[in-house]
Amino acid sequence: MDLEHRQTDILILGAGGAGLFAALHAQKANPDLDITIVSKGLLGKCGCTRMVQGGYNVALNPGDSVERHFMDTIEGGKWLPHQELAWTLVTKAIERVQELENEIGCFFDRNADGTLHGKAFAGQSFDRTMHKGDLTGIEIINRLMEQVWARPKIRRLEEHRAIALIPATDGALSGALLLDVRSGEFCFLAAQAVLLATGGGPTMYRYHTPSGDKTMDGLAMALRFGLPLRDMEMVQFHPTGLLAGPDTRMTGTVLEEGLRGAGGHLLDGAMHRFMADYDPKLERATRDVVSRAIYAEMRAGRTTKHGGVYIKMSHLGPANVAKEFKGMVDRCRDCGFDLAGGVVEVVPTAHYFMGGVICEVNTATECPGLFVAGEDASGMHGANRLGGNGVANSTVFGGIAGDVMPHWIANKNPGFRSPDPHVIDAELDRAQHPFAKKPGDLNPLRERLLDTMWDEVGVVRDGAGIERALAAIDRIEAELLATGVSDGDRRFNLTWHDWLNLRSLCEVSRVIALAARQRENSRGAHYRSDFPEPGDPATSTFTVARQRAGDIEITEQPVQFTHVKPGETLLRDRVAAE
Ligand SMILES: Cc1cc2nc3c(=O)[nH]c(=O)nc-3n(C[C@H](O)[C@H](O)[C@H](O)COP(=O)(O)OP(=O)(O)OC[C@H]3O[C@@H](n4cnc5c(N)ncnc54)[C@H](O)[C@@H]3O)c2cc1C
Predict the structure, then answer these.
(1) How far is the CA of 577 from the centre of ligand 1 (A)?
(2) What is the pTM of this model?
(3) Residues 408-427, mean pLDDT to the nearest whole number
């Protein structure tokens, strides 16, 4: 096949908060560099940054501090976060929010005195979640998109899918293989520096929240490239996914955390408020705790019509709820439910992936020239991401990547390396594999993967279930490899993309299961019913997954407590913090 070869100085894979911030910062750092954003979806319409509802955590207001935000992040993450990354997140978030308002053009909600309004989010000791009503992400991504549009020198390859990271003949990074969704044609894009920012997204679970374009492609590519991945067992379930029945894609979409933060109640099928049976913080306990509580109610059969529980807001005053949570109330109304005045069925839903590529504070990976930011990166959140720390993470580290890459190019002068032709050929064969097989139905395979991950590697796990999942994933992947796609027309061939999506999801699902098998304790989002104890925080380890010669090896490394040790705090007045 004749493969078109192109070049760009900085290649950014992904157009969410991380990718767009990186592009803007990189151009500011060196306007002469050629920058290309590649995005599987349409700019401003894809990824999860657009879907951010609740808001953005930042320690700005009197009474709060970065130390307090940091301690919430570390304790919420069950002492597993990489403390330097977490510290960078909380300190740089201040700068980034000011940049969002003063340079990018966002307007967040304010208090009467003009300060930014912070709403309450679960697991936090201060109301620090800045927001634009309950549709914060639309404000952020629209303004970022406008800024990118206003800079025509930033090239955009929309509806282009990254297929593989391509090494140079000397093993360093050369660029990425892309597939133009519109034409169905491949091209190789060489780059001096590449940012991986495809946004993770655990869409291999029966109930999930992320956008449909996110299928863990970035982590699958990183795995095949041989990069180490951290915390892969850590899948965050949001407690309140909308449960609207099996026939609508709205099922699984999230009803934001602020509902519980504002005082919403969770009720079982018999209208009993059950959180007191699980945690003294009731509905304001962290996401992992509330998700497990709901899951326990479901397993005990105390469920609603569709098998979940109810969220009730009406005791806060229907008019008030309709005003404060307009987006959520509208969403529920669109599905036929009255959030302001009645009850709405909810279920835990896979929401965020704490695992990802191991990186430095400056977003560099172990491969020179490859950087990672946003939900593809790991370490900032440990075992549990605080609501509001996700978009802070992607914008903070996306901006850092954008600052760093031009300097890296200037200092290292890597130039453009020749891609390894054997890897390109192998990846082209891999992507076109289904055209060589008899066309078949992918839906049953997808359904089996969704159920396998939900049932066996979901909110509650155990060794036997994980083994069943590993065997099932192998079978599903083998059947996928035997299932073909019609090669009639490759333009917008969405069945082909479904096939590729499923392949990425199978690969990463296997790593999630292997890391979950390795961690024989229960921390944050990872709960093993056969190992319910958290283990000693002082000897905490994190898992590292790496693919070598086709096999995945999982090891453990000790967490470094560089800022604070378990049992200690950075807050002078511990009582005030609680
Ligand atoms: C419903 C919902 C609500 C949320 N609410 C909050 C909240 O209130 N507060 C908070 O802090 N966080 C929230 N989050 C989490 C937050 O949205 C994410 O953590 C964050 O936006 C991720 O940013 P990102 O740039 O890494 O990825 P995204 O914004 O998801 O962008 C990923 C980009 O990568 C592209 N892409 C994917 N695969 C490929 C490929 N193969 N090739 C090329 N491009 C690719 C996508 O098209 C997209 O452009 C929420 C998430 C969801 C799903």
Answers:
(1) 31
(2) 0.96
(3) 96
